[in-house]
Amino acid sequence: ERLMKDWISLVYTFFNPKPCIVIIEGRRAHEFKCFGKSCKATVRRYLDKKDARSTGNMRKHVRACWGEDVLMAADNAKDANEARTKIVRGFLRNGSITASFERKGKGQVAYSHRQHTRAETRAEIVKWVAESLRPFEIVKDQGFQSLMKTGRPEYYLPSPSTITQDVRVVFVRTHECIAKMTKEYAGKLNFTMDGWTATNHRAFITFLVHLEHNGVLLSFPLDIVEVPKV
């Protein structure tokens, strides 16, 4: 505890505040456990060296584990509390500092320097192909792969079949969520339907439900049915 009073660097917010004291070949050292998700690494600092209070190795680990942007955000925080609550906890919760931290004087941080995990990549691609009406096969496009992998040839891209499975999973879970919401909704539900003919001359009818949720009007498509030929 006596030594901890001198640990004023904000880099300590990325580690367990109480390090373990270990003895390696007769030498005492502090081992700092990283707070990173799934990170089991520790940073060891020997107490019999002149740099016993050095944070160089700790910063090196944070830069590799959390990303340069997160480390810079911590350095720019006004105090340890802001670094801990807004940056470290925000990053652990969302995988990004953009949700809870704004870079002072430069507006909100738009993108993270941290590479997506495989799960995050799959989620982002599902969102992209759904919102932008992209074909699943686009991930095999040579130009797309060049854009994604240049400078990061090891970057993971899921196969079209994986995207298909992910979209189905998202659809099922979204369907269950909407069903639960409409079933438990205490107000009135409004239903509408519309019909149109696609450019390939196939006719469709869609059914929608409309409701108010926390003062916001929500509309959900419930089903799309192709009109059979007469």
TrEMBL record:
GO terms for cellular component: nucleus. Transmembrane segments: none annotated. Coiled coil: none annotated. It is found in: Nucleus. It comes from the Eukaryota. InterPro entries: ZnF_BED_domain_contain (IPR052035). Keywords: Metal-binding, Nucleus, Zinc, Zinc-finger. Its main location: nucleus. The keyword Cell cycle does not apply. GO terms for molecular function: zinc ion binding. This is Transposase.
